[in-house]
Task: inverse folding
């Protein structure tokens, strides 16, 4: 892995333990790497301090300014052969540096402006608990429904799906689709999860608000910002379930 990759994984909080050790070693012993790290760290702070649309407009202006600038001075000096090289960056300001980063293809611009859908999904997803079927140790009943929810609470989602699917149509209950959708979502079958959550919402059965929440998360996972915002706005406007979380997600999706 090259130095640029290490910087990318550092700023996206995805360094492995081995990469973290390599990163720390470079930071302590490689002056060039440290200079680039500090530059990109400052750039990140600049970008965070501004609204995205405003900063985009500024960067366009800075690019035009930069095009008229004859040169940007970067001094390298080494006062003694035994001392490591040190880099001194002379930029008009960090905003100009942001434009330079954009033009040079450095780490900054693209990753900062790209919505972190995966992070949003992982930060907000949790399995909805079993609130419909009480399982007790002394229970001698051996039904498909009991086996399904024992599997669900054991996080054996494939068995949950198999058992719920095996229940005859005349014995199904309204909440089956919601928990089956949960199970599908946890085995990475988002298509079936989406289909079943949508059925719950369309039929106005139990867990409508909860299903809208999970449909919003699926849309985020699929990087469908428009659909995610529609679900979240529905949740905020009509339900109390996870309303504050939905508001925060809407802000992140602006």
Result:
């Amino acid at each position: 892995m090259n130095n640029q990759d290490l910087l990318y994984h550092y700023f996206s909080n995805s360094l492995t333990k081995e990469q973290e050790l390599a990163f720390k070693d470079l930071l302590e012993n490689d002056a060039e790497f440290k200079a680039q790290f500090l530059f990109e760290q400052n750039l990140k702070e600049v970008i965070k301090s501004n609204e995205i649309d405003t900063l985009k407009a500024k960067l366009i202006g800075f690019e035009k300014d930069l095009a008229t600038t004859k040169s940007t001075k970067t001094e390298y000096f080494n006062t003694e052969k035994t001392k490591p090289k040190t880099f001194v960056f002379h930029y008009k300001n960090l905003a100009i540096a942001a434009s330079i980063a954009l033009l040079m293809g450095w780490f900054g611009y693209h990753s900062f402006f790209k919505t972190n859908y995966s992070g949003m999904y992982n930060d907000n997803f949790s399995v909805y608990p079993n609130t419909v079927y009480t399982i007790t140790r002394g229970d001698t009943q051996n039904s498909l429904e009991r086996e399904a929810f024992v599997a669900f609470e054991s996080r054996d989602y494939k068995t949950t799906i198999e058992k719920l699917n095996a229940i005859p149509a005349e014995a199904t209950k309204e909440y089956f689709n919601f928990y089956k959708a949960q199970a599908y979502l946890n085995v990475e079958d988002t298509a079936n999860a989406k289909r079943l959550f949508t059925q719950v919402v369309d039929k106005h059965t139990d867990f409508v608000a909860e299903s809208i929440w999970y449909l919003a998360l699926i849309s985020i996972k699929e990087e469908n910002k428009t659909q995610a915002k529609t679900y979240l706005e529905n949740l905020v406007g009509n339900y109390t379930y996870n309303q504050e979380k939905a508001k925060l997600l809407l802000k992140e999706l602006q």
Remarks:
- Strands lie at 74-77, 86-89.
